[in-house]
Amino acid sequence: MKDIEERKASPPSPSPLSKSKYDYYGICFIGGMLSSGATHLAITPLDVLKVNMQVNPEKYKNNGILSDIATIWKEEGSYALWRGWSGKLCGYGIQGGFKYGLYEYFKNFYAADDDRALIKLNRNSIFFLSGLSAQLLADVTLAPFEAVKIRVQIQRNFAKGLVDGFLLVYRNEGLAGFYRGLVPLWSRNLPCNLDGHVFNI
Fold this sequence. Notes:
By secondary structure, the chain is mostly helical. The protein has a single domain (19-198), classed as Alpha/alpha barrel (Mitochondrial carrier fold). 72% of the residues lie in helices and 0% in strands. It contains 9 helices and no strands. It has helices at 2-9, 16-19, 21-42, 44-55, 65-76, 85-110, 123-154, 162-173, 182-198. Helix 6 (85-110) runs antiparallel to helix 7 (123-154). 28% of the residues are buried. InterPro entries: MCP_dom_sf (IPR023395), MCP_transmembrane (IPR018108), SLC25A3/Pic2/Mir1-like (IPR044677). Solcar repeats lie at residues 23-109, 122-201. Belongs to the mitochondrial carrier (TC 2.A.29) family.
């Protein structure tokens, strides 16, 4: 009875979101990781087709998406359409987590009321800088997974799995092998993501 009365007298425990702003960043990270990982996993067959069209444009030229997917299925089996799925799930999951978690962090950082503050910036400028900073760093985490994924999709017997692919790239090309495609990755991802951040969508 005494315990019940003490619990009634004590203030309610804070909700997860009110404990700390870092809890909020963590929730954004998890949400971004789950949503980005799942959606990119779902479109793996389209990604496989895109890579095949880039490597062998004469074979996959103006035939239509469904026709080209059917060609891959017929020649290599249904599993071929999911080649590199683990790289997409893990890579874009981690990238999505950092992208949305860091976006919220940088919004507070750039608008902070201290010596670092960019007080004179309007909201869209803060959103733009936050999105830019988050995307630049998030793509650094994605680049190694993209490097392995593309090799798995192009070179049929490149690796047995994601971990094996990482080891092979590191053994053959060193750390630089993971980041050869970083600049093209930035060139692709920055323009199509910053507009959404500017309007805070």
